[in-house]
Amino acid sequence: MKPLFLLVLLAAIAPAAIHRVCWSVKTAVDVHCGEPLSKKAAEEFVARVSLEFPQLHHWVATEGTRANWNRARLAATAFAFAAGIYDAHTTTSVLAAGGVEKNALYGSHPSGVRLYGTNIGAVAAPLLLTEWWRRRHPDAAEALDKGGFVAALAGGSVHFGAGLHNESVLEKQKSLQGR
């Protein structure tokens, strides 16, 4: 689960880059750039064209693109959903091994339905509310996406931390039972 967290975080916030092949005549100041390409395709194009047209100076220009905050928010929401399921699963395992829930929201022995339902609802409700608000106010979409990204990442991190804590409690219970 730890590598999943890092992968989602990096994929969500990493802005993409586009590559364009640019050229100019060595004596002129005019610079022209072609259509966006992948880095490999742009480098292959420069290598091939440099042989055919030695009088032109070719290079690959890399341009950064803006971060897609909607994609980042949705990726963080997927992480929060997975972390909520992980938390509910590990909590259920601890309860089955004789542990007690310390969260007053659930009670000392909550049912699995209550655990899963609350954790999934805690992710689904903000997602649905944000989608509804984005449709009604498209001018505020980017601000909503940024805030939703931070909120989903924070909520997912809390559930992820709770799941790790539950696993450590479960390991302690197993070691005590093994003695």
Strands ordered across the widest β-sheet:
2-1-3
Largest sheet entry: 3 strands, antiparallel
* Overall tally of domains: 2
Termini separation: 29 Å
Q: Which value, in Å, is the CA radius of gyration?
A: 25 Å
Instruction: Round the mean pLDDT to the nearest integer and report it.
Output: 82
* Succession of helices and strands: HEEHEHHH
Report helical residue fraction. Answer: 55-70%
Could you characterize the architecture of this molecule?
There is one protein chain. With 179 residues, this protein is mostly helical. The protein folds into two domains: 48 residues, no CATH class; 110 residues, no CATH class. Helix content is 65%, strand content 11%. Strands 2-1-3 form a three-stranded antiparallel sheet. A hairpin with a 6-residue loop joins strand 1 and strand 2. The longest helix is centred in the last third of the chain and has 38 residues. The model has no long low-confidence stretch (mean pLDDT 82).
Topology:
Blueprint: H1 2-13, E1 17-25, E2 32-33, H2 39-52, E3 56-64, H3 69-96, H4 112-136, H5 141-178
Antiparallel strand pairs: 1-2, 1-3
Helix pairs in contact: 1-3, 3-4, 3-5, 4-5
Summarize the structure.
The chain has 179 residues and is mostly helical. It is 65% helix and 11% strand.
Features:
mainly alpha, three-stranded antiparallel beta sheet, 3 strands, 11% strand
